[in-house]
């Protein structure tokens, strides 16, 4: 899928649906927060939420005292809505509108969080560009916290094909530069009451 088509798809989603209507809505992103705090330990450094959309994660990260928080999304509408929701607190956040498979540089971050974006990247070249950028962004010792649909979970999201992962598939995709800290499954309940099986992992960049 070309960037233009992706932008069109996601802008339409965010311009036509309320945040509470989308299947990935969660009032409290506790699973992500727990894994991020595990990865962070006692530090509250630089963190980026890739494909953050209208997630409440950014609110929770500010509350938790992270010093440098960035939210990236391909949809300008999603970013603007999240900024508006945060009000004055939005000025403490770096906002980036970009296709993560096309961005050249994001600067350095200690934690890269991605819930339900990586699984949309089904094209091998796009996936390689994502992984190259991940490695350029996370220093050795940094953490990749990722949540995707699990093997046995949904096969599509927002009408788009996705790639399912389990611990073995994620490790094969990430390669030897990343070591697992924790892997788990998580059941997400959509606003319409459907259960979706997610795979979540914390990976540390080791080389
Ligand atoms: C399923 S939603 C998940 C949103 C958020 N992470 C959450 O958990 O609520 C996927 C998000 O990824 C964004 N997205 C999809 N493809 C992207 C890409 N190539 N680059 C950046 N963002 C992308 C969408 O606009 C959308 O906000």
Description of the molecule:
This protein is of the alpha/beta class and 207 residues long. The protein has one domain (46-205): Vaccinia Virus protein VP39 (Rossmann fold), CATH 3.40.50. It contains six helices and nine strands, in the order H-H-E-H-E-H-E-E-H-E-E-E-H-E-E. It has a seven-stranded mixed beta sheet, sandwiched between helices. It is globular. It starts with a helix and ends with a strand. The mean pLDDT is 97. The structure holds S-adenosylmethionine. S-adenosylmethionine binds at residues 6, 10, 24, 51-53, 55, 73-75, 78, 99-101, 115-117, 120, 157.
How is this structure best summarized?
It contains six helices and nine strands; from the N terminus they run ααβαβαββαβββαββ. The strands form two sheets. Strands 3-2-1-4-5-9-8 form a seven-stranded mixed β-sheet, with helices on both faces.
Task: Give the helices and strands, then pairings.
Elements: H1 3-16, H2 30-40, E1 46-50, H3 57-63, E2 68-73, H4 76-86, E3 93-97, E4 111-115, H5 124-137, E5 143-149, E6 156-157, E7 160-161, H6 167-174, E8 178-189, E9 195-205
Parallel strand pairs: 1-2, 1-4, 2-3, 4-5
Antiparallel strand pairs: 5-9, 6-7, 8-9
The structure holds S-adenosylmethionine (SAM).
Backbone shape: globular
Radius of gyration: 16 Å
> How confident is the prediction overall: mean pLDDT?
97
Structural class: alpha/beta
Counting H and I runs of at least 4 residues, what is the number of helices? 6
Strand content: 25-35%
Weakly predicted, low-confidence segments? none
CATH architecture: 3-Layer(aba) Sandwich
Here the CATH topology equals Rossmann fold
Q: What is the makeup of the main sheet?
A: 7 strands, mixed
Which strand order do you get reading across the main beta sheet?
3-2-1-4-5-9-8
> Percent helix among the residues?
25-40%
Q: Give the CATH class.
A: Alpha Beta
Query: Would you count the extended β strands for me?
Result: 9
